[in-house]
Write a structure and sequence with these properties.
single chain; 174 residues; mainly alpha; 0% strand
Length: 174
């Protein structure tokens, strides 16, 4: 009987570890996305769009953000345990801050389009913006799918805001 109790305890700890690991990985991914969004926003805040070397830095940061969004989407989709209301609230609160920064970022992308045109990199910006819009849409849909029913509406509203932010930038470069 002691063996069974010990086995049960180890199994319980292992399962608890997996549950925590799933959410912990998603939380880590969201932190990575937030860091990338903040970095890109900071770079864009001082950019004119007409400096080719700075534009390449913006391109590299956009690609980094896109990679982080894709990794986050994969990890969210791989999550096997249900997300709790508390966990959903934590992600919604954090991503609400990220959405405000994303709005600033996309507004700035639109504002400096003449500089990008002058530098001859609008096709690169268009490609990056479209890729970010697609990855953001997938990430948002994955999060909404995993959200508890009681938080799906909030999660969808937030995903819609992200999608609208990026849609305006994509439209500006069409």
């Amino acid at each position: 009987m002691q063996f069974s109790s010990a086995s049960f305890l180890l199994l319980s700890l292992a399962l608890f570890g997996l549950v925590s690991c799933d959410f912990a990985k998603v939380q880590s991914d969201v932190n990575d996305v937030q860091t990338s969004v903040n970095q890109l926003n900071t770079t864009l805040a001082t950019a004119s769009g007409s400096d080719y070397f700075q534009d390449l830095s913006i391109h590299n940061e956009a690609q980094d953000l896109n990679s982080k969004l894709q990794a986050a989407t994969t990890d969210v989709q791989a999550t096997t345990e249900p997300v709790t209301e508390s966990q959903a609230d934590q992600l919604i609160n954090q991503l609400t801050v990220v959405e405000k920064t994303t709005k600033q970022l996309t507004d700035r992308l639109i504002a400096i389009k003449p500089g990008f045109q002058k530098a001859g990199v609008t096709s690169l910006v268009k490609s990056d913006t479209s890729a970010l819009a697609d990855s953001t849409k997938s990430f948002g849909a994955s999060l909404v799918d995993k959200a508890p029913d009681s938080r799906k509406s909030q999660a969808q509203d937030l995903a819609d805001k992200f999608n609208a932010d990026l849609a305006s930038a994509v439209a500006a470069y069409q």
